């Protein structure tokens, strides 16, 4: 990566975008856990 390639990113990144992405990720993880629980697959295999 070039030096300074990410410089200035803090000006356009919004906290709301981060929260939205985090919530989306957590929703996906929860859905995966529910699906595995319904299948009875708790071994992680």
UniProtKB/TrEMBL annotation:
It comes from the Bacteria. This is Tetracycline repressor TetR C-terminal domain-containing protein. It comes from Nonomuraea polychroma.
């Amino acid at each position: 990566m070039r030096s300074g390639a990410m410089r200035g990113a803090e000006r356009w990144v919004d906290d709301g975008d981060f929260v939205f992405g985090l919530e989306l990720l957590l929703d996906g993880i929860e859905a995966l856990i529910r699906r595995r629980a319904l299948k009875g697959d708790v071994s992680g295999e």
